[in-house]
Amino acid sequence: MKIVGFDLSFKPKRKVNIVIKDHVIRYLELKNNGKEIVVKDCKERYLPDGVIKEGKIQNREKLTFILAECVEEWKIKNREVQFIVPDQIIVIRRVQVPGDLLEDEIQSHLFLELGASIHLPFEEPLFEFKLLPNSEQKNKQDILLIAAPEETVEQYRQLLEDVSLDAVVADISSLSIYRLYYSAMEDVENEHLLLIQYDLSSVNLTIFNEEFPVFSRHIVNEFDEGSWEVSDGKIAWTKNEEDLQAVIEEDIVEMDRVMNFYRFTLTKGKEEITKILIIGDNPYLSDVIGKMKDRFTVPIMSFDEGVFQTDTGEALPREQYLALGLALKEVQTK
Fold this sequence. Notes:
5-stranded mixed beta sheet, alpha+beta, globular, Pilus assembly protein PilM, 6-stranded mixed beta sheet, 2 domains, Dna Ligase, domain 1, 28% helix, single chain, Nucleotidyltransferase, domain 5, PilM
């Protein structure tokens, strides 16, 4: 299965993988073992508050300095890099185009229609599309449109170039995680999967059907500066525990709304979510899963600890699952 992404190069060499979030930079590299998934190395570096906010770089100088230190420490200078575009700026949309267009004509059609019949919340988008199963409407073709503001993607690409990395592929987190899920599962046919990425200060909800994302919702959890603190390489909550639990409850209510929206609005009552997959780097993830199981009857799964390992036999930290999914972009696992 081929997953779409923003390809900036056609170079075939094995690449390193970088995930940059508001609070952390993560790196992962696979061994050259053909189809076998073997993690050679992975590292992370937490960022101070305010360097990146909601995916937008706020302090370019400090971020460049920190990333340059990481590149030196991790010994990845001059390597080709795959990176994740921030969830906050991604638009995933199902749109229709004339059914008589050939696949290589759709790109030109989209260029003409963006800003006219197809509206995005930003100008000058970088986008890709994927053909979807035939529309029920005659003379129409359904496509999946994935878009991001070119300016922001270019900012991250230039950041990586400035610290002696060769940014060649940009991908999005939901596709990377689904790629990891797909590689681990024997059968995903006829699923209506709600993929939840539950991170430190945000929640990303993406619904997949027939191996394609059909709906996406990003939730930002606003926390005061200093609410999270790093100690001995671990992240911990520093404020009132009840405040955090209240935020978790609100997030679960929003998950319920998204599932109902998919069932009653998007599919007109014909379909519903059949499975939930949740991952993330929030240290309270187990609590979140427990509360979800109390509320929802839909099967909920998460990757067991140790299901993915490094080449030394150690369990891959769950915080690195997104980077692993990104790495699989250049590995044919099935």
